[in-house]
Amino acid sequence: MSQSSLGDIWASPDAIFARKELLNIDHIPEEDRIIGRDDEIEDLASQIHPAVRGGSPRNTLIYGKTGTGKSLVAKHVTQSAQKFAKQQGTKMGRVYIDCTQSATETRVVINTAHTLNNPDKTGISIPVTGLATDVYYHRLWQILDELYDVAIIILDEIDKLKDNEILMQLSRAGESGKVDSCKVGIIAISNKISFKKSLDERILSSLQDREFIFPPYDANQLRAIMRNRADAFHDGVLTDDAIPLSAAFAAREHGDARKALDILRNAGELAKHEDSEQVQEHHVRDAREKADIDRFSQLLEGQPTQAKAAVYALSLLAEHERDNEFSTREIYDVYKTVSDELDMDTLSHRRMHDRLSEQVFLDILGESERVGRGRGQGVTNYYFLMEDSHTVQKVIHQDSRFEDLDNTDFRV
Ligand SMILES: Nc1ncnc2c1ncn2[C@@H]1O[C@H](COP(=O)(O)OP(=O)(O)OP(=O)(O)O)[C@@H](O)[C@H]1O
Ligand SMILES: [Mg+2]
Asked: 37-214: what fold?
């Protein structure tokens, strides 16, 4: 591309977006743009309230489905606490760790220490690699005591941590005498309620000071959340349908604000791409399909081939039957034909069932239990897709091992 045509691109104003950054997932909106979370904000604020004057913040667990504002509320409240603490003369440290990025104990300690450190004052260095984990811990405790009265550490997506040692260390830093004067509080966030089962009793007792569950939004709240960011678009660009339709799509499984904003942003991008002057209904519909595929690809990425084969089998069933829930036995029969077709090992019934349960944990599949009729009948697990079968197959076909599979080849 020549310099002058590039110049044209730089010079041309964006006809659709006025402040696109308002729709970025990481953007933290101002307080008056946050909708329907007053109680959650107050609850969390009361947990960390003592900290603004240098007292101990209470450890907190936050649960809730994806897109229910957990990360947003945690960031917003702690930011505000930090500002207030500063006015009070309290030295408050604040760290936000995304455990999908820092999944090991050592990485979390390094990132925490690195964020809190001020090497000019402490003379402590935190090399990115190379030290033993206890050395990093030791430096972290030193930094905390030297620089802060209190520190709040947000561990987001905590179920992604490979082990829970870090939680144990941080949540009990004070009582175990690791830090002398600094008070440490943890805010742990997860969208998996079942995650709690994997926690050690000792961690639970120190974390369970209080736990909050964030409910999904209803369609009205989703509309309000989007309307509050409509100034991301130029005046008149959003047609009347755009926001209600995005809200309706995002409320379908559970009210997910991330999905709502994603759909709206993608719809804007599609409109821009087509040189359309407005975001219209068909842009929103197309954006929704793209959002579903993106989300599902992310979830499925890195899953073992066997798991994909089992999910594919379920998608074949879902496509052909009116019923949308299937027992392991029904799925297993189809799974065998899929694994044959792919020339791969066939797992035992039991192992495939384990694979299906893992997919439920990852929100790739849903699960329900039915109690059998008659005596001696146990509980049977039924599985269903969280996306439509068309989307699921499209995503699985992106994996080269599955690309030649043709759904019409299977007689289900
Ligand atoms: N109550 C709200 N008001 C305004 N915007 C919101 C609200 N809740 C969520 N959002 C926006 O929706 C998006 C998703 O929210 P957030 O990241 O906090 O969800 P989450 O609960 O952490 O989801 P996940 O479990 O997937 O991480 C963000 O862009 C956030 O700014
Ligand atoms: Mg989050």
From this structure: Rossmann fold (3.40.50)
